[in-house]
Amino acid sequence: MPPDTPGSVGRRIAYYRAAARPRMTQQQLAEAAHVALGTIRKIEQGERGVTDDTLDAIAAALGVDPSRLVADREHVSSRVRDALPALSAAIAAYDVPDDGPVRPLPELRSAVAQTTAWRLSAQYLQIARAVPDLLAELARAAAGSPPERAREVAALLVTAYRSADAVAYKYGARDLSARLVELMRWAAPAAQDPLLTASVGYVRTETFFAARAHTAGLRALEQAIDACPAPVGAEATAARGALHMRAAVVAGRAGEAEAADGHLEEARLLGGWIDEGVYQGTAFGSDSVRIHEVSVAVSLGDDHVERAFDVAREWAPPAALPAERRSGFYVELARAQMWGGMADAAFESLKVARRIAPQHTREHPWVREDAATLRRLKRADAESLTNFAEWCHAD
Q: What are the backbone angles phi and psi of residue 25, rounded to the nearest 5°?
C-alpha cells in the first residue's frame, strides 16, 4: 500500500468533511476537532502533515475511524496494539484503584456510552486510547460510591469492560480478553440487573469460541437463556433473542444442526416482536437475525452454503445496522462464496466488508485465511487482490 503524503491525507479529510450530513465547513470541522482553522486548511491543501493526535481529533469530529483517513493502516493497528499494555495495567488494579478525580455520574455515563458507540462502529483505536483511563476512573468511582449510586457505577464498569474486551478480542489478545470477560462477570452482580447479566452471558461466548470449546459454550448460553427474564418488553425480548441468536451460531460450530435451527427459530420469532435496535449494547431485531442465518450456515460447514446464498440473494444489511455487524455479514458471506467456488464474488464481499469497517475486517482471522486462499487460486489476477492480501497480512 502506498505511503501517506500530506496531500493524500488532506484529500481524504476534505472528502469526509464534504460527505458529512449535514455537510461540514472547514470552520465547523476546526471547531469540532479543537484544531485551528488555518491548520485544517493547510492539511486539506497538502501543505502540512498530520500528527496522530490531530488525526484522531479530526476523525472523531468527522465521526469516522482514523484508518479511513490514511493509507498506512498498519500504523493504526500498531497504535491499537501499543495501547494494550496500558489496558492490562488498568485492569490489574481493578480492586486497588489509585487516587484521582472522578467525574459526576452524567459525565461518566456519557463517556461509557461513547465507548459503546465506538465498539458498534468498529472504531477500536478510539476505544484503546480512551478506555484505560476510563476504567481506572470507574474503579475509583466504584470504590467510593454511596449505596444509592453503586448499582449504576457497577453497570457502567461492566459496559466499559465490554468495550475494552472488543479491542482485546479483535486484536488477538485472547488472555486479556478472557480476563476482561471475568471482570464483567465479577462486576455484574453489583448492578443487580438481570438483563445486564444476560449481556455478559452473550459476551462470555467469545472465550468458548477462542478455545474452540463449542459444546461447553452452548451449555453456558442455554443456562444464560434459562436465567434470562421472560420476554416482556423490548429490552427483555432483545436480551433473550440475542442469547438465542448466539446460541444458534455456537451450536453450528459444535456440529449440532438441530439445536442451531431451534435457537435460530426462537431468535427469529423474538426478532419479529420488536424493532431492530441496540439493546444493552447488542444489536438485535429481524435484520440481526438474518445476518446470523448466514453465520449459522457458515458455522455448520460447506454443505450448508446454499442457506447463506438464500439470504444474500434477497437481502443486504441496511446501513442503519452497526458497522461491525454489517462488516461481519460480508466476511461470513465471503467464506460461503469461497466454499461455493465463487472466488470473484468472495473477493467483492471482502472489499465491501473493508469499506464498512476497515479495522474489524483487517483483524478478522477469516479475512486473512480467505485472502491468502484467493491469492493462491488467482495468482495471475489483479494487483488489487495482492494489495488486499498484504493489507490484511494474509500468508
A: -85, 170
Do the Cβ atoms of 345 and 337 come closer than 8 Å? yes
Closest of 62, 55, 77, 64 to residue 359, by C-alpha? 77
The domain in which residue 155 lies consists of 72-192
Predicted confidence (pLDDT) per residue in 216-264, tens digit = 999 999 999 999 999 999 999 999 999 999 999 999 999 999 999 999 9
Tally of domains within the chain: 4
Return the closest-CA partner of residue 261 out of 286, 220, 289: 289
Nearest-angstrom CA–CA distance, 358 and 139? 32
Quick one: 145 and 212 in the same domain? no
Give the orientation angle of helix 105-120 with respect to helix 323-339, to 10 degrees. Answer: 20
Q: CA 239 to CA 245: how far, in whole Å?
A: 10
In the chain, which residues have pLDDT < 50? 1-3, 380
Instruction: Answer yes or no: do 245 and 345 share one domain.
Output: no
Can you give the length of the chain in residues? Answer: 395
Is 126:60 a contact under the CB 8 Å cutoff?
yes
Domain boundary among 177, 192, 207: 192
For residue 304, give the C-alpha cell. Answer: 450448508
User: Looking at the structure, do residues 286 and 215 belong to the same domain, yes or no?
Assistant: yes
Residue 254 cell numbers, joined: 459444535
Give pTM, 2 decimals. 0.87
Q: Contact, 242 vs 295, CB < 8 A?
A: no
Query: Cβ(333)–Cβ(144) under 8 Å?
Result: no
**Is residue 65 located within the same domain as residue 170?**
no
Q: Are 91 and 100 in contact (CB under 8 A)?
A: no
Q: Which three cell numbers stand for residue 295?
A: 453465520
